[in-house]
């Protein structure tokens, strides 16, 4: 990939939105840490069998953390949609400026970096023709996949070390997920006319599974 040196209001807006997204993800991690400290999730009861507040957790902090996480997740979803619209605008500007139709990447990782680069390098030109080998089905709210930015109907171009050239079956994806618990996995998807790069961290959450989304082979 070769970075494009772009200056313009559309790109600047996208960069600001990505910074806001990183800030929200950081606060979600902070609030999630409150729940983990109290050994509870988003749905565990806060009262004992007799209906009294549990004395083994800080009920006030847990309530506050849960409420804040829900609000932040809603903000995160809205931001991701705004980023997608902004990228489409940048893509349109690129087509108008050079007469070509390059794919545009938004490297939006959950650790505040963009695919190993700074946010300023996150808008790039694709120089390799890539093909999707899998498609994202449903994505559960608040799941690791949701927080990473995966959306239903995303076409997967790369998942960790797997791409269309070495893909054989879905067990490869499952193996990567199982062996990457609490580790970052780079994922590249095609979303409409743009390419989005993100980082997903498989991990246990309040529902079964490590990703919280359904991925199936592209037919």
From TrEMBL:
InterPro entries: Nas2_N, PDZ, PDZ_sf, PSMD9. One of its GO terms (biological process) is proteasome regulatory particle assembly. Residues 94-122 are annotated as: Disordered. The keyword Ion transport does not apply. Residues 109-122 have a biased composition (Low complexity). Residues 98-193 form the PDZ domain. Keywords: Chaperone. GO terms for cellular component: cytoplasm; nucleus. It comes from the Eukaryota. Belongs to the proteasome subunit p27 family. PANTHER family: 26S PROTEASOME NON-ATPASE REGULATORY SUBUNIT 9. This is 26S proteasome non-ATPase regulatory subunit 9. It comes from Mythimna separata (Oriental armyworm).
């Amino acid at each position: 990939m070769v970075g494009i040196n772009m200056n313009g209001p559309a790109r600047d807006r996208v960069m600001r939105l990505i910074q806001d997204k990183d800030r929200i993800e950081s606060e979600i991690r902070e609030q999630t840490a409150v729940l983990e400290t109290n050994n509870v999730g988003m749905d565990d009861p806060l009262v004992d069998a007799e209906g009294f507040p549990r004395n083994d957790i800080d009920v006030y902090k847990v309530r506050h953390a849960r409420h804040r996480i829900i609000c932040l997740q809603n903000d995160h979803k809205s931001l991701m949609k705004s980023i997608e619209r902004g990228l489409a605008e940048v893509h349109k500007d690129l087509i108008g400026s050079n007469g070509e139709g390059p794919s545009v990447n938004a490297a939006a990782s959950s650790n505040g970096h963009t695919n190993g680069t700074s946010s300023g390098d996150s808008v790039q030109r694709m120089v390799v023709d890539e093909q999707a080998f899998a498609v994202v089905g449903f994505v559960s709210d608040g799941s690791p996949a949701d927080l990473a930015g995966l959306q239903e109907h995303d076409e997967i171009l790369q998942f960790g070390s797997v791409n269309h050239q070495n893909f054989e079956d879905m067990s490869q994806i499952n193996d990567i997920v199982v062996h990457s618990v609490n580790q970052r996995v780079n994922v590249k998807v095609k979303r409409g006319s743009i390419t989005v790069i993100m980082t997903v961290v498989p991990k246990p959450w309040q529902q079964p599974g490590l990703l919280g989304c359904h991925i199936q082979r592209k037919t």
